[in-house]
Every structure is written in structure tokens, then in C-alpha cells.
Design a protein that fits this description.
The complex is a heterotrimer of chains A (290), B (787) and C (163). Chain A has helices spanning 12-21, 35-40, 77-82, 84-89, 91-97, 103-108, 111-117, 124-130, 228-234, 241-254, 265-289; strands spanning 5-8, 26-29, 48-51, 61-64, 68-72, 134-139, 142-147, 152-154, 157-158, 165-171, 178-186, 193-203, 210-218, 225-226. By secondary structure, chain A is α+β, with helices and mostly antiparallel strands. Chain A folds into 3 domains: 5-51, Uridine Diphospho-n-acetylenolpyruvylglucosamine Reductase, domain 2 (2-Layer Sandwich), CATH 3.30.43.10; 57-171, Uridine Diphospho-n-acetylenolpyruvylglucosamine Reductase, domain 3; 178-289, CO dehydrogenase flavoprotein, C-terminal domain (Enolase-like, domain 1). In chain A, a hairpin with a 2-residue loop joins β6 and β7. In chain B, strands 3-5-1-12-9-10-11 form a 7-stranded mixed sheet. In chain B, strands 7-15-14-13-8 form a 5-stranded mixed sheet. In chain B, strands 16-24-25-28 form a 4-stranded mixed sheet, sandwiched between helices. In chain B, α8 (238-249) packs across α9, α11 (342-351) packs parallel to α12 and α12 (384-402) packs parallel to α20 (746-763). Chain B is globular, with a radius of gyration of 27 Å. The termini of chain B are far apart. Chain C is α+β, with helices and mostly antiparallel strands. Chain C is built from 5 helices and 5 strands; from the N terminus they run ββαβββαααα. The chains are: A alpha+beta (290), B alpha+beta (787), C alpha+beta (163). Chains in contact: A-B, A-C, B-C.
């Protein structure tokens, strides 16, 4: 690992001013669960790190019936997984978090750090996108809100400016007659995900008709992938097994996976078909009861 | 000594408190004053001439103390197989040529690891690329690039020191063939002619990583005044490592001391001589400073030994009733860039398997082939898992073809207890029949086999046999026991503790023989300066040979104690019993003398203290040197361990993902000295075997390892472990200590076959290339649907 | 003093330390190289094996992936801090010993720290809780079974004790 200068910010304001000062050579450090490995492998070698992990003001989970949920970017994965509030109102997040790396990583790693690392096999982004997440980016110049689905641009790349910090994630209140289901596929239980998907389904109250749907996937494209055509096929239709299967096939055709040591591109597409089918069915059943 | 009070119990391990409090010293924990750190520059090319190496920039980097290249170590050779016919060809640093990605081309010693690493970036190597060859079958073709030129007779010819009759001779490999083996017995042609049914199948087992948790590490410290080298290292027998350091660096044997450290796992992967070991000692002597080399996990995957890829074609002839009448095996071993143990592996794929079933007429041909890849070594079973997969997979299919039951098939072809098998080994203990029976019962074979395909579930069976040490190298151990003044003992023996438990089990063996408790044993082990000869910690010889030496030493001391006691007590030795540090009359236990009194008596009346025990044991007493690797003749081992394993799996036909529901391991390891340690060995192999069947493979592209880390090379975690049932089917081994024999390696192979055969039972699809990953299973199921 | 170094205060196993370190130093390097607490092991260096697990402010973390600077002002417990100073093992360590829950012992410190943290956090963990929470700790020797049994034994003892 190369040497670097180290600053620990004591407030968001100080963090913003440090990052604007060192934006060309610096990197923001949150939990560092990906960053430190990258530094050790010399894949990146910033000359300065701005440590924001200690910022209490970005470590919160707050819910309001009207405006929904706000999660501070420095909330740990473990805090999200274990939050009774999230377990009750956004259970899919809690379930998804159980699959993020290991307990040790979830204890120290933060949701904001995870999103900013923009790993295409990351789990939180697809679930959050399926729930309609927005994020708040702040800098010394001000702040902006962006839909999470517009945040990612390429492998390990986002729209975040060098002087910006991801401050919080916002979710709308849980929608009526809606369920979101997370499903993953890996060779070993806690292994690298070959595919994972989060599927949101809203049904017309008291019927089998799908009012709205969103299908988001990881590990099948450089960024979290929203398979819009597949979701469109479901909207306004009665969800039969045949239709779900067709939609899952469509989802597979919308993906553009690559081959690596864990699976070939072709096989990933096959798994997409199965996983999306199963996730839609499960979300549909749950939405009817929601 | 009928009632056993110390052996046969799940006593807590004697290394427990040290290991559970963080005080156990592993090599990585060794820090010496003034210690420098070394890093190795690895070849980025699979096959290339080295035109020149410029180390001047690296040498100038502040903090760098030395940079060495092949010029410094030119001519040094070593190898695991180093016989007159196959002289060693490994070298610590590439000389004029690199043969695989990851081969060491230079080494830097510096004040800290980061500086050493930075210096590596400053070394300029001018390579002239040569065409590489990666596939063993391609490598054997005429016109393929030749990886080795003449391999000359060299400095490291270990065998000659042990009295081999012939001198080594130089040779030049032809068509990249590193070695061949041909074992035959019976009349194979006649056997096939008499067969009612003949099948021919192919299978492949990939290269895998031992994945011991402690990455390979060594600390060497040269004392220029005493001209002596102190060493802390990862090993599985310091006797071997010390010998190699002596040979490669020309340091007298007594001037090398390998100190005891705990070893963080081995599974075969730490036994041979490694480049970094010679380099570490070399640098320490050059700089007169302690040197530490800690390999990274990536280096362990890419530059340390992995298991051999085997491609096997197997042809078996059977009678209608399933009696095997002939078998012809053809094995191709992917040796990698240097042969290391490849000649042994392809021989062992016959040697270990021949004890299980009576195949009557056998021809076993093997070839080990050089390729431009990292090279390989034994991993837990050394050739047996690959061969058993081929054989047990085919037997399963033969049963399917002929409408036979695999359990009945195996039972029909069993050998018999007391049989002398074709090489001359006698099966004095043979628990395989019972193991097959009990493993089948435990998985509910009769109720389940062939009856659960509608639920995508199936059961399968596999078997294996394994040496309890063998006659390679001197393969002999000695142990010494001192009687202390208070009646306790100090046991001095050489075995190293890498998890398998000898510190504990050997203490139990000695305590039992002398009527003591395990707390009465002080242990001195695994130190080359303090311990007597020890070659046993591989080929599963630990318990049988090392433990056997300890047993003999304890019996020796016991007899001496009884002799003196009989003089003191004026009684016959056979009327005296030893217990609680006392000798007493069996007929009148009150008439007792403490060990202390007995010892004092002898010193007062005679010439000092004769009350120490000496014991020694050789793996195979009847053979003088070693069996023929190339012909498979001569005795292999004195006792075989046996396993039968059954497994139940469930297959997700939509994705191809396989879930193992249960694994049964029924094992004959002779008498179990420590039942908890034995169970640990078997559970371990159940999980490793499952993982081999389903998950593990070192993947490479043009010689570059694609998954050299624990993120991409996946092994089971706590959640992946199925229900595991261990059944003790021990058959008393008359030549083993208290009746014990091997336990550490046998089961893994049986579990692999059991899982793969269960997958067939669940799906009707046979995948004979492991690991059966979800994708391989999916593709096989799709191919089945198309039919 | 090297100007590139920074000073941190950290309590390790109850003992306060003030150390001056380069910012790139990981918690693992701090423990092993600066404080001589070599019980915590390094096995993968990429946040995947859990051999370096320690407890920071009651949470199990992987010391290879936390900068030492980040534990400034915090409390760290390592495997050396589990037993009492006069040589009494913790209940969990005893259970590991009784159940032969280790073999080579290289990953044991990490496992002990993960399970210690879990047993602090969960009063009555289920089999699934235990397996899920131990997923961060790779082991090649044991096949996990005896180690999971040791943890379950502690849970069982605790239940009986509370009755």
C-alpha cells in the first residue's frame, strides 16, 4: 500500500470543504470495506484520504409516514439489517442485507460506501432502485437529489463529482398492494452472486392484475440493470404463469452479462430467466396479501 | 492393559489452550531483531527465455539490502522426486528460462515488505517469449514446444545418500513426458475376452488448491559466527526440509535447526521444497541477517503447489452378475512446469486404489506431462480421489446399464481380510465391507436409491483405501521417552502439528502404555535439534509410523520399569501393573512402589538411570528401499485405511444447482486413539470432498490463474455444510499403535464419488468432470432434454 | 518523530495505548506489528476469510480492512483478551476445547471473536443465526461441524443457567 495523507472530518461541512480542497488527489473513506483492498492491491493510490466514517450526522434511519424513509449514508449494513423499522416496513432491505458480504463487513461497511463503490455485483443498489430510491449528494457548493437508478454510469463509476459526498438515501413510503422480492443465485450460499434480482410488483387491490412492476438486476450489466420491457409486459395484465415466464425471458434478453470464473454470459441469462420468474411469482403472491 | 483409560477417548487437545488464546506461535508470528523482509518477482510470461535482468534501479532504492537473480543461485536443483532415473529439475530462481507464470525470477530483501515490493517494480527483465503449451495431450504431440532440455545429474540427488545402488544420470524429456508408469498383473486381454459387458469412460479432476489457512511463510536466520542457520517454516516434515536446505545450500545438516512452530494447515501442500525457502535461507546467509518471506494468498495459488489435474480413461469388463474381470486405466497427469510429485501421483492412483476391490486382471498406464503452468503436488489422497472418481463413477454406470445395485456390486467385488494383494501387501485389517454396509444403511439406500428422481433427489456411494505411510525416502521414525523424577514422562518425537493432532494422540499413546494420564506427559516435538529421526507426516503415515514409534518407546520404558520393579518388589514382571505413577502387585495393589522410588533404587544400586524408552518404526519393514514407481512392484504399505461414503443430494433442475442434504462417512481407521480428533479428520474430509465434487477448480487462461484468491476460489462456509454422519467401522490393525492406522486422507475421495453418483441418481445425468458446478449441471441437463 | 505519522489512542483488551503510526497502517498491522498481539491472523488480505476478526466497540470486524486511524478512541478486543489474565478460559474457549472445535488453529482466533460478538449480541441464537453469523469465517480444517457444536453448547448452557 502506498502512503497517503489522512484527514478525519468532524462534521459534514468540514468533510465537504476538505474534499473540495483535495478533490483531484483525494478519496473519501467511509467503512473502507472495498477501498482498503483496492489500496492494498494498488488498484488506486490516492495521496490523501478523507475519513467521514465518524460523522454521526450521516448515521441515522428515520421514517415519516408522508415522506418515507431516510437512511444516512454512513449507516452500516448491519444497522439496516437489524432495524426493526426496516424489518417492518421495508423487509426486503433487511433480507437483502443478510446477503451482503459477511457480518464483519456489514458491521463496519456503510450503505453509502457500498453505493459509491458501484460494484456491478453489489446487492443493495437493485433493491433500493426497486423501492424507488433517491439519493442526496452534497458538496461545499450545495446539494442535489438524484434518482438512484441514474447514479451509476459504468463499472465502478458513478455520476458523483470529485467534490461531492453521498449524504443520504431516501425511499418513498411503502406503496399499497406492493411487494418487493430479492433473490440471489450463487454457487455457494455466501458466494459471489452469479445473478441477483429485486422485483417490485403492485397489484390492483383484490385482483390478480399487475398495476405496476419494476425488475432490477445485478451482475448482468456494468451497472444495476432495470429490465423495462419485461416490466412493461406485466403492467395491466393478469399475472399468469405463462405471462410471468414470458416476462422473465424478456428480462434475460435485456441483459448483457459477461463471462467470468463464476459463470458464462449464456448461463447468466438462463439464470436470469429462472430467478426473475421466481421473484415475480413471490412478489406477486406477497403483493396480493399486502 | 485390557481396560484402556487414555486412548479411545475424546480428550481435549494438548495444543488447545495455546491455539485458543492466541499464544500458539505460527511461522508468521516469528519476529527477530533486525529482521529483513523479502519479496519475489514473478514471471508474467508462461514460457520465455530471459535475455537479461537489470536490478540496478532496485538496488538503489533506499531500504533495499539485496537483490538476487538466477545468476546467484545458478545450478541449485531440488525436487520431490529425485531418483536415479528422474533427477531433480526445480530451481529456486529461474536461470535462463521461465516455464510458468509466477515462476520466481528475482528476489529482493529490504527493511520492510512495502519497500521490497516497491523494489520489485524497479527490476527490469528482458524476456524473449517462447511458444507456450498448456494442455497435456497437446504437449505430448510431436512438434509441441519443449519445456525442458537436458536435465542433468545434479547436487540434490537425495536418494544416493540413502544407499541407492545406481548413480543418477542425465536425461532429456521427449515430447514433454516427465515420467511414465505401467503396472500390470493378471492377463488383461484374457479378462476382457471373458467379460460379458465392457464399458469405457473418461473423467477429469481439475487442479485444486490445498487452501491451508496460513499462507506459506518462512523465517531464516544465519549466524555467521557459528555458520549456522535457524529456521521457522511451514512444513509437514522438517526432516525433509532440513535435508533439502542442506543439499541446496551446502550447509552441514547439524548446522540447520528447524524450530517448532504450529503449522496453519497443510493437506499435502507444504511438504515439498519451495523456491522461497531456498531463497530465504540464501538471502539470510548472504546478508547475515534474519529474513522473513510471507507469501500472499495470490502467490500461494499461482506459485505454490496445487493438486494435479488428471484425465483418466478407464475400461472395465464385468460378468453379467457384476463380477469385475478386467480393468485398463489410462491416466494423464498434468505435471505443470516441473515434475515435482507427478510420477508419484500417477503411480499412487493405482497403488492406493488396488486394495479396495479385486479386479483380477489390471493394466494401469500413466503419463505425467510437462505444461507451462504452475506445478503440482499431493493433496489429501494424492492421486486416489481422481482415480476413484473415474472408477466409482463407472461402476455406478455399469450397475445402471446391467440393472445391478451399486452397493451389491461393490460388495461382490470386495477383497477379503487377510488377502495378499498382487504387490504383496496383506490386508490384516479390512473394514471396508462393514463400512459399505453401514454407510448404505445410514443413507437409507434401499428405500431411496433410484426412487426419488421425481423429487430430484438421489443417493450415491463411493469407496477408497489409503496407505498408512509408505516406503518412500527412509520413511521411519524414532521416539524417546524420559522418565522424570516425579514419575511423569517427557516424550520426545519429531512429528509436526499442522492440525491433525499428533501432539495429543501421541501423548495419549505413551500415557496409556505407562498407566499415566495425558497431563503426565510433557512433549518435545517438531524441532530438528531436539528430536530423533522423523519422516512420517505425509502419505498418512503419522499415526502408524510416528505413533508407532511412540508406542514402541513407551513399551520399551514399560518393560524397563517392570524389570527394575520386579527386582525391587521381588516379584515376576508379569505380576506387576503400572498405574498412577506406581508399580504394584496385581494380586495385592497395596504392595506398591512409586516410579520415583523405582528410579531412585536403580540409581543407588546400579550405574545410573536406565529408565528411558526408545522406540522406532519403519513404514514397511520388509522392504529395503522403495517400491518401483514406474512398475508398481514391491510392497506399498503395511496397513490400509478404508472408507465408504454415501451422500444424498437434491438438484434444482431449472438452475443446475446441487444441494447436498447428507453425507455419511463410514471409516476404518483402525482403533481410534482420540475419537474427537478422528471425527474432526472425517468431517473435514466430508466437507472438502463435497467441495471438490461441486465447487473447486483452479481456472486458468493461457497459463494465468484466474481465481487466485478466496473471493473467486470459493470453498464452503458454515452455511454450506450439510448433515454429516460419521460411522466408526474400525478394524483392529495388529501392527498399528493400539491397533490404529491412517485416518487423514482416505475419506475425501470416497465422498467425491458419493456426491457425483448421487447427482446421477437424482437426475439420470452423469457429469464426469468435476466440479459439477451449477452451470455444468445445467448444460448436462439441457443436453439430456435434447436427447 | 516522522512527520507523516499520526498519533492515536486506543484501548486494546482493556489496556490504553498511545501509538504513532503511518495512516496507511491497518488495524491488523497495528495489533500484530506495533502491539505484538500476534494472535490475530492474516490469511487472505482481501477481506474474505475472517482470520483477522477482532471486536471493535462490541462489533466483529475484519482487522485487515479497517484502518488503524479509524479505531482512534475506540475499544478493541482481540483473542488475547478473552481469557482472564490468571489463565481462566472464557466459556466459549472452554467449549472450543471440549468439542475439539479447531485443528490447525490458524483461523480459530477469528472464529472465537466472531462467535463471542454474536453471543453478546444474540441472547438465544438459532442454528440459522449461528451459521449465518459465522459465514465470514473460512475454515479449511474442521468442516465447521464441531465448531458450530461448541457455540451451540454455550447457548444451551446459557439457557440452562438462566432457568
Amino acid at each position: 500500500m502506498k502512503d497517503f495523507e489522512y484527514f478525519s472530518a468532524s462534521s459534514l461541512q468540514e468533510a465537504c470543504s476538505l474534499i473540495s480542497q483535495y478533490k483531484d488527489v483525494g478519496k473519501v473513506l467511509a467503512g473502507g470495506q472495498s477501498l482498503i483492498t483496492l489500496l492494498r492491491q494498488k488498484l488506486i493510490s490516492p495521496t490523501c484520504l478523507i475519513d467521514i466514517k465518524g460523522l454521526k450526522e450521516l448515521d441515522f434511519i428515520e421514517f415519516d409516514k408522508k415522506s418515507g424513509l431516510r437512511i444516512g449514508a454512513l449507516t452500516t449494513h448491519r444497522a439496516i439489517e437489524k432495524s426493526p423499522l426496516i424489518q417492518e416496513k421495508y423487509n426486503v432491505l433487511s433480507e437483502m442485507e443478510k446477503s451482503v458480504a459477511s457480518v464483519q463487513t456489514r458491521n463496519w461497511g456503510t450503505i453509502g460506501g457500498n453505493l459509491c463503490s458501484a460494484d456491478p455485483i453489489g446487492d443493495p443498489a437493485p433493491s433500493l432502485i426497486a423501492l424507488g430510491a433517491k439519493i442526496k449528494l452534497v458538496s461545499a457548493k450545495g446539494e442535489r437529489a438524484v434518482a438512484l437508478e441514474e447514479f451509476f454510469t459504468d463499472y465502478f463509476t458513478t455520476i458523483i463529482e470529485p467534490d461531492e459526498i453521498l449524504a443520504e438515501i431516501q425511499l418513498p413510503p411503502p406503496a399499497a398492494n406492493t411487494a418487493v422480492e430479492y433473490m440471489k443465485f450463487a454457487t455457494i450460499e455466501a458466494g459471489i452472486k452469479i445473478v441477483s434480482t429485486s422485483v417490485a410488483v403492485t397489484v390492483e387491490a383484490g385482483s390478480d392484475v399487475c398495476k405496476d412492476a419494476k425488475i432490477v438486476m445485478s451482475a448482468v450489466a456494468p451497472i444495476p440493470l432495470i429490465t423495462k420491457k419485461a416490466a412493461e409486459m406485466l403492467k395491466g395484465k393478469k399475472l399468469t404463469d405463462d405471462l410471468i415466464e414470458e416476462a422473465a425471458k424478456m428480462a434475460a434478453s435485456e441483459t448483457d452479462p459477461t463471462t467470468d470464473v463464476h459463470a458464462s454470459a449464456e448461463y447468466r441469462k438462463e439464470i436470469v430467466k429462472v430467478l426473475v420468474k421466481r421473484a415475480i411469482k413471490k412478489a406477486f403472491e406477497k403483493a396480493k396479501k399486502a | 492393559m485390557n481396560e484402556r483409560s487414555v486412548v479411545g477417548k475424546p480428550l481435549p487437545r494438548v495444543d488447545g489452550k495455546a491455539k485458543l488464546t492466541g499464544r500458539a506461535k505460527f511461522t508468521t508470528d516469528v519476529v527477530l531483531p533486525g529482521m529483513l523482509h523479502a519479496k519475489l518477482l514473478r514471471s508474467p510470461l508462461p514460457h520465455a527465455k530471459i535475455r537479461s535482468i537489470d536490478t540496478s534501479k532496485a538496488e538503489k532504492l533506499p531500504g533495499v539490502m539485496a537483490v538476487i537473480t538466477g545468476k546467484d543461485t545458478w545450478g541449485i536443483r531440488y525436487g520431490f522426486v529425485d531418483t536415479p532415473n528422474y533427477p531433480a529439475e526445480e530451481r529456486p530462481i529461474a536461470e535462463d528460462k521461465v516455464r510458468f507464470i509466477g515462476e520466481t525470477v528475482a528476489a529482493v530483501a529490504a527493511i520492510d515488505p512495502d519497500t521490497a515490493e516497491d523494489a520489485l517494480d524497479l527490476i527490469e527483465v528482458d524476456y524473449d517469449p517462447l511458444p507456450p503449451i498448456f494442455d497435456p495431450e497437446e504437449a505430448m504431440k510431436d512438434g509441441a514446444p519443449q519445456i525442458h532440455g537436458e536435465i542433468t545429474r545434479n547436487t540434490s540427488c537425495a536418494w544416493e545418500d540413502w544407499g541407492v545402488a545406481r548413480k543418477s544420470h542425465s536425461y532429456t524429456p521427449v515430447n514433454n513426458v516427465a515420467a511414465r508408469v505401467l503396472v500390470t498383473y493378471g492377463d488383461v486381454e484374457k479378462g476382457f475376452a471373458e467379460a460379458d459387458y465392457i464399458r469405457e469412460d473418461r473423467s477429469r479432476s481439475p487442479g485444486t488448491s490445498h487452501m491451508a489457512m496460513e499462507p506459506h511463510t518462512m523465517v531464516a536466520s544465519w549466524d555467521p559466527f557459528e555458520q549456522k542457520l535457524d529456521v521457522w517454516m511451514n512444513h509437514m516434515a522438517w526432516e525433509l526440509k532440513r535435508y533439502w536446505l542442506h543439499k541446496t545450500l551446502d550447509i552441514p545438516l547439524p548446522k540447520i535447526r528447524i524450530h517448532k512452530t504450529y503449522i496453519g494447515g497443510a493437506f499435502g501442500g507444504k511438504a515439498p521444497c519451495f523456491d522461497y525457502e531456498v531463497i530465504c535461507a540464501f538471502l539470510s546467509r548472504k546478508l547475515c541477517k534474519p529474513i522473513k518471506i510471507e507469501l500472499t494468498r495470490e502467490e500461494v495459488f499461482s506459485s505454490c503447489r496445487n493438486s494435479h489435474r488428471f484425465d483418466i480413461s478407464i475400461k472395465t469388463g464385468v460378468k453379467k452378475d457384476g463380477t469385475i474381470v478386467a480393468q485398463h486405466c489410462n491416466v494423464i497427469v498434468d505435471a505443470g512446469a516441473y515434475k515435482c510429485s507427478a510420477p508419484v501421483a500417477m503411480f499412487l492412483s493405482h497403488g492406493m486404489c488396488d486394495c479396495c476391490l479385486d479386479r483380477k486382471n489390471v493394466r494401469h498406464e500413466g503419463v505425467a506431462v510437462y505444461t507451462n503452468k504452475n506445478f503440482n503436488f499431493a493433496r489429501r489422497g494424492h492421486g486416489a480421489p481422481q482415480m476413484r472418481l473415474a472408477a466409482d463413477g463407472q461402476y455406478d454406470q455399469i450397475c445402471e446399464d446391467l440393472g445391478l445395485d451399486p452397493v451389491e456390486f461393490l460388495t461382490k467385488n470386495l477383497r477379503k481380510k487377510g488377502d495378499v494383494i498382487p504387490n504383496g501387501d496383506r490386508l490384516d485389517s479390512y473394514g471396508l465391507p462393514e463400512a459399505i454396509k453401514k454407510s448404505a444403511e445410514a443413507i437409507k439406500w434401499k428405500e431411496k436409491r433410484g426412487k426419488q428422481r421425481d423429487k430430484n433427489r438421489g443417493v450415491g456411494i463411493g469407496i477408497n483405501g489409503m496407505f498408512s505411510g509408505s516406503g518412500y525416502w527412509p520413511f521411519a521414525c524414532t521416539a524417546i521417552i524420559r522418565l522424570n523424577h516425579d514419575g511423569t514422562i517427557t516424550l520426545i518425537e519429531g512429528d509436526c502439528e499442522f492440525g491433525q493432532g499428533p501432539d495429543t494422540t501421541y501423548s495419549q499413546i505413551a500415557a496409556e502404555a505407562l498407566g499415566l494420564t495425558i497431563e503426565d506427559v510433557t512433549l518435545v516435538s517438531s524441532d530438528s535439534e531436539l528430536c530423533p529421526m522423523n519422516y512420517s507426516n505425509f502419505l498418512s503415515g503419522g499415526m502408524f509410523v510416528g505413533g508407532g514409534a511412540v508406542y514402541n518407546a513407551a513399551i520399551d520404558l514399560r518393560e524397563k520399569l517392570l524389570k527394575v520393579a520386579s527386582e525391587v518388589m521381588r516379584a515376576k514382571p508379569e505380576d506387576i501393573e503400572l498405574k498412577d505413577k506406581k508399580a504394584f502387585l496385581k494380586s495385592n495393589p497395596k504392595r506398591a512402589y512409586t516410579f520415583t522410588e523405582i528410579q531412585r533404587y536403580h540409581i543407588q544400586k546400579h550405574l545410573g538411570d536406565p529408565l528411558f524408552g526408545i522406540g522406532y518404526k519403519k513404514a514397511v519393514p520388509e522392504i529395503e528401499f522403495y517400491p518401483s514407481l514406474s512398475k508398481g512392484t514391491g510392497r506399498f504399505t503395511d496397513a490400509y485405511g478404508f472408507t465408504a461414503s454415501t451422500a444424498e443430494v437434491e438438484v434444482d433442475r431449472e438452475t443446475g444447482r446441487i444441494r447436498v442434504l447428507k453425507i455419511v462417512v463410514a471409516e476404518d481407521s483402525g482403533y481410534e486413539i482420540n475419537t474427537a480428533v478422528c471425527r474432526g479428520q472425517l468431517v473435514s474430509q466430508a466437507v472438502q470432498g463435497m467441495s471438490d465434487a461441486l465447487f473447486e477448480e483452479i481456472m486458468d487462461d493461457e497459463g494465468r490463474v484466474l481465481n487466485p484468491n478466496l473471493v473467486d476460489y470459493e470453498i464452503p462456509r458454515a452455511f454450506d455444510v450439510p448433515e454429516i454422519e460419521i460411522i466408526d467401522c474400525s478394524d483392529f490393525e495388529p501392527k498399528g499403535p493400539w491397533g490404529a492406522k491412517e485416518i487423514g486422507e482416505c475419506a475425501r475421495a470416497a465422498v467425491i464419488s458419493a456426491v457425483v453418483n448421487a447427482v446421477y441418481d437424482a437426475t439420470g445425468v452423469r457429469v464426469m468432470r468435476i466440479p459439477v458446478t451449477p452451470e455444468r449441471m445445467f448444460n448436462a441437463l439441457k443436453a439430456q432434454e435434447k436427447k | 518523530m516522522d512527520s507523516s505519522k499520526k498519533t492515536i489512542n486506543v484501548k486494546v483488551n482493556g489496556e490504553p495505548y498511545e501509538v504513532s503510526i503511518k495512516p496507511k497502517m491497518t488495524l491488523l498491522q497495528l495489533l500484530r506489528n506495533e502491539l505484538g498481539l500476534t494472535g490475530t491472523k492474516q490469511a487472505c488480505m482481501d477481506n474474505s476469510c475472517g482470520a483477522c476478526t477482532v471486536i471493535v466497540n462490541k462489533m466483529a470486524v475484519k482487522a485487515c480492512s479497517v484502518l488503524a486511524m479509524q479505531v482512534n478512541g475506540k475499544e478493541v478486543t482481540t483473542v488475547e483478551g478473552l481469557a482472564s489474565k490468571d489463565g481462566k478460559l472464557s466459556i466459549l474457549q472452554e467449549a472450543f476445547l471440549e468439542h475439539s472445535a479447531f485443528q490447525c488453529g490458524f483461523c480459530s482466533p477469528g472464529k472465537l471473536m466472531s462467535s463471542t460478538a454474536m453471543l453478546e449480541e444474540l441472547e438465544n441464537p438459532t442454528e440459522e443465526d449461528i451459521r449465518r453469523d459465522m459465514e465470514g469465517n473460512l475454515c479449511r480444517c474442521t468442516g465447521y461441524v464441531q465448531y458450530l457444536e461448541a457455540i451451540k453448547e454455550v447457548v444451551r448452557q446459557r439457557k440452562e443457567g438462566s432457568k
